[in-house]
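Our working data are protein records whose layout never changes between entries. An example says more than a description, so a record of this kind follows.
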Amino acid sequence: MRNLKALEVRVRRLENEVRILGDIEQIKKLQGIYSYYLDYHMWEEIVDLFSDQTESVEVSDSGVYLGKKGVKKFFKSLLGGSHSGSTRRLHVTMQFQGVIDIKGGGKTAKGRWQALECMVRTIDGVLKQLWGHGVYENEYIKENGKWRFKKLHFNLTFRTPFEHGWLKTPVVGSARNKTIKPDRPSSAYKPYPSGYRVPFHYKHPIPTRM
Protein backbone atom coordinates (compact mmCIF):
# COMPACT_ATOMS: atom_id res chain seq x y z
CA MET A 1 0.00 0.00 0.00
CA ARG A 2 2.83 2.34 0.89
CA ASN A 3 4.59 1.54 -2.39
CA LEU A 4 1.37 2.25 -4.30
CA LYS A 5 1.02 5.70 -2.73
CA ALA A 6 4.66 6.47 -3.47
CA LEU A 7 4.11 5.42 -7.09
CA GLU A 8 1.04 7.68 -7.37
CA VAL A 9 3.04 10.62 -6.01
CA ARG A 10 5.82 9.93 -8.50
CA VAL A 11 3.37 9.68 -11.41
CA ARG A 12 1.75 13.00 -10.47
CA ARG A 13 5.16 14.64 -10.21
CA LEU A 14 6.20 13.32 -13.61
CA GLU A 15 2.90 14.42 -15.16
CA ASN A 16 3.46 17.92 -13.80
CA GLU A 17 7.01 18.01 -15.16
CA VAL A 18 5.79 16.89 -18.60
CA ARG A 19 3.09 19.59 -18.55
CA ILE A 20 5.65 22.26 -17.65
CA LEU A 21 7.97 21.13 -20.45
CA GLY A 22 5.06 21.23 -22.89
CA ASP A 23 4.12 24.74 -21.76
CA ILE A 24 7.72 25.94 -22.18
CA GLU A 25 7.84 24.59 -25.73
CA GLN A 26 4.54 26.31 -26.59
CA ILE A 27 5.83 29.63 -25.25
CA LYS A 28 9.06 29.25 -27.25
CA LYS A 29 6.91 28.70 -30.34
CA LEU A 30 4.75 31.74 -29.53
CA GLN A 31 7.83 33.94 -29.14
CA GLY A 32 9.28 32.63 -32.40
CA ILE A 33 6.04 33.20 -34.29
CA TYR A 34 5.90 36.75 -32.95
CA SER A 35 9.43 37.34 -34.24
CA TYR A 36 8.59 36.15 -37.76
CA TYR A 37 5.41 38.24 -37.88
CA LEU A 38 7.41 41.27 -36.70
CA ASP A 39 10.01 40.75 -39.42
CA TYR A 40 7.33 40.54 -42.13
CA HIS A 41 5.27 43.45 -40.71
CA MET A 42 2.21 41.23 -40.16
CA TRP A 43 0.58 43.55 -37.65
CA GLU A 44 -2.89 42.00 -37.59
CA GLU A 45 -1.41 38.57 -36.91
CA ILE A 46 0.74 40.00 -34.10
CA VAL A 47 -2.30 41.52 -32.41
CA ASP A 48 -3.98 38.11 -32.42
CA LEU A 49 -1.09 36.73 -30.33
CA PHE A 50 -2.09 38.97 -27.41
CA SER A 51 -4.65 38.15 -24.74
CA ASP A 52 -7.78 40.24 -24.22
CA GLN A 53 -6.37 40.57 -20.69
CA THR A 54 -3.19 42.20 -22.00
CA GLU A 55 -1.62 44.59 -19.53
CA SER A 56 0.71 46.50 -21.84
CA VAL A 57 3.19 46.54 -24.70
CA GLU A 58 6.33 48.61 -24.25
CA VAL A 59 9.28 49.32 -26.51
CA SER A 60 11.52 51.47 -24.39
CA ASP A 61 12.13 54.37 -26.79
CA SER A 62 8.46 54.48 -27.84
CA GLY A 63 6.57 54.42 -24.53
CA VAL A 64 3.92 52.19 -22.95
CA TYR A 65 0.63 51.23 -24.63
CA LEU A 66 -2.05 49.81 -22.34
CA GLY A 67 -4.44 46.93 -22.88
CA LYS A 68 -5.47 45.18 -26.08
CA LYS A 69 -6.48 48.58 -27.45
CA GLY A 70 -2.91 49.77 -26.85
CA VAL A 71 -1.54 46.69 -28.64
CA LYS A 72 -3.58 47.58 -31.73
CA LYS A 73 -2.52 51.22 -31.54
CA PHE A 74 1.16 50.37 -31.24
CA PHE A 75 1.46 47.65 -33.88
CA LYS A 76 -1.21 48.58 -36.41
CA SER A 77 -1.28 52.37 -36.18
CA LEU A 78 2.22 53.35 -35.07
CA LEU A 79 4.43 50.62 -36.56
CA GLY A 80 2.00 49.85 -39.38
CA GLY A 81 2.09 53.48 -40.44
CA SER A 82 5.83 54.04 -40.14
CA HIS A 83 7.05 50.66 -41.45
CA SER A 84 4.92 50.30 -44.54
CA GLY A 85 5.54 51.06 -48.16
CA SER A 86 9.02 50.44 -49.55
CA THR A 87 9.82 46.88 -50.57
CA ARG A 88 13.48 47.71 -49.91
CA ARG A 89 12.86 47.67 -46.17
CA LEU A 90 14.30 44.77 -44.22
CA HIS A 91 13.88 43.45 -40.70
CA VAL A 92 15.49 40.30 -39.30
CA THR A 93 15.19 39.47 -35.60
CA MET A 94 17.18 36.72 -33.89
CA GLN A 95 15.94 35.80 -30.41
CA PHE A 96 18.00 33.57 -28.15
CA GLN A 97 19.02 32.73 -24.55
CA GLY A 98 15.36 32.28 -23.59
CA VAL A 99 14.62 31.73 -19.88
CA ILE A 100 11.01 30.72 -19.21
CA ASP A 101 9.36 30.16 -15.83
CA ILE A 102 5.85 28.74 -15.54
CA LYS A 103 3.77 30.35 -12.78
CA GLY A 104 0.30 30.18 -11.28
CA GLY A 105 -0.16 26.43 -11.54
CA GLY A 106 0.47 26.48 -15.28
CA LYS A 107 -1.78 29.45 -16.07
CA THR A 108 0.82 32.22 -16.35
CA ALA A 109 4.50 32.48 -17.24
CA LYS A 110 7.40 34.89 -17.57
CA GLY A 111 10.19 34.85 -20.14
CA ARG A 112 13.41 36.69 -20.88
CA TRP A 113 15.11 36.81 -24.30
CA GLN A 114 18.02 38.48 -26.00
CA ALA A 115 17.24 39.98 -29.41
CA LEU A 116 19.70 40.93 -32.15
CA GLU A 117 18.36 42.72 -35.22
CA CYS A 118 19.55 43.81 -38.63
CA MET A 119 17.30 46.02 -40.69
CA VAL A 120 16.90 48.63 -43.40
CA ARG A 121 14.80 51.61 -42.42
CA THR A 122 14.25 55.15 -43.67
CA ILE A 123 16.01 57.65 -41.41
CA ASP A 124 15.49 61.35 -42.23
CA GLY A 125 14.30 60.38 -45.70
CA VAL A 126 17.26 58.12 -46.48
CA LEU A 127 17.39 54.31 -46.40
CA LYS A 128 19.87 53.19 -43.73
CA GLN A 129 21.37 49.82 -42.75
CA LEU A 130 20.89 49.36 -39.00
CA TRP A 131 21.99 47.01 -36.23
CA GLY A 132 19.83 46.64 -33.15
CA HIS A 133 19.92 44.88 -29.80
CA GLY A 134 17.68 44.66 -26.77
CA VAL A 135 16.23 42.43 -24.07
CA TYR A 136 12.66 41.17 -23.79
CA GLU A 137 11.05 40.61 -20.39
CA ASN A 138 7.59 39.27 -21.19
CA GLU A 139 4.58 37.82 -19.39
CA TYR A 140 2.25 35.18 -20.82
CA ILE A 141 -1.16 33.77 -19.98
CA LYS A 142 -2.85 30.53 -20.99
CA GLU A 143 -6.37 30.94 -22.35
CA ASN A 144 -8.47 28.01 -23.55
CA GLY A 145 -5.34 25.88 -23.66
CA LYS A 146 -3.36 28.41 -25.74
CA TRP A 147 -0.53 30.65 -24.57
CA ARG A 148 -0.76 34.36 -25.42
CA PHE A 149 1.14 37.50 -24.52
CA LYS A 150 -0.11 39.34 -21.45
CA LYS A 151 2.73 41.87 -21.25
CA LEU A 152 5.50 42.54 -23.76
CA HIS A 153 8.47 44.70 -22.78
CA PHE A 154 11.42 45.27 -25.11
CA ASN A 155 14.23 47.30 -23.60
CA LEU A 156 16.40 48.73 -26.37
CA THR A 157 20.19 48.67 -25.91
CA PHE A 158 21.09 50.16 -29.28
CA ARG A 159 19.75 50.76 -32.79
CA THR A 160 22.62 52.13 -34.79
CA PRO A 161 23.63 52.79 -38.41
CA PHE A 162 25.85 50.03 -39.78
CA GLU A 163 28.55 52.50 -40.77
CA HIS A 164 28.61 54.21 -37.35
CA GLY A 165 28.23 51.48 -34.73
CA TRP A 166 26.77 51.72 -31.23
CA LEU A 167 29.87 53.37 -29.77
CA LYS A 168 29.44 56.44 -32.00
CA THR A 169 25.65 56.52 -32.50
CA PRO A 170 23.73 54.34 -30.00
CA VAL A 171 20.13 55.07 -31.08
CA VAL A 172 18.40 56.26 -34.27
CA GLY A 173 15.00 55.58 -35.81
CA SER A 174 12.66 55.72 -32.82
CA ALA A 175 9.03 54.94 -33.74
CA ARG A 176 7.36 58.20 -32.78
CA ASN A 177 4.38 60.03 -34.19
CA LYS A 178 2.90 63.39 -33.23
CA THR A 179 -0.66 62.08 -33.48
CA ILE A 180 -0.15 58.54 -32.09
CA LYS A 181 1.05 58.93 -28.54
CA PRO A 182 1.78 56.31 -25.85
CA ASP A 183 -0.48 55.99 -22.83
CA ARG A 184 2.46 56.71 -20.55
CA PRO A 185 6.25 57.15 -20.76
CA SER A 186 8.58 54.17 -20.78
CA SER A 187 9.16 52.56 -17.40
CA ALA A 188 12.89 52.76 -18.08
CA TYR A 189 14.90 53.85 -21.09
CA LYS A 190 18.66 53.69 -20.60
CA PRO A 191 20.38 52.58 -23.80
CA TYR A 192 24.09 52.02 -24.33
CA PRO A 193 26.41 53.16 -22.78
CA SER A 194 24.36 53.40 -19.56
CA GLY A 195 25.17 49.84 -18.48
CA TYR A 196 21.52 49.41 -17.43
CA ARG A 197 20.37 45.84 -16.81
CA VAL A 198 16.71 44.99 -17.28
CA PRO A 199 15.56 43.47 -13.95
CA PHE A 200 15.46 39.67 -14.04
CA HIS A 201 12.08 38.03 -13.44
CA TYR A 202 13.77 35.02 -11.85
CA LYS A 203 15.95 34.45 -8.80
CA HIS A 204 19.46 33.04 -8.96
CA PRO A 205 18.89 29.28 -9.42
CA ILE A 206 21.84 28.09 -7.33
CA PRO A 207 21.38 28.27 -3.53
CA THR A 208 23.96 30.35 -1.69
CA ARG A 209 26.38 28.27 0.31
CA MET A 210 26.19 28.62 4.07
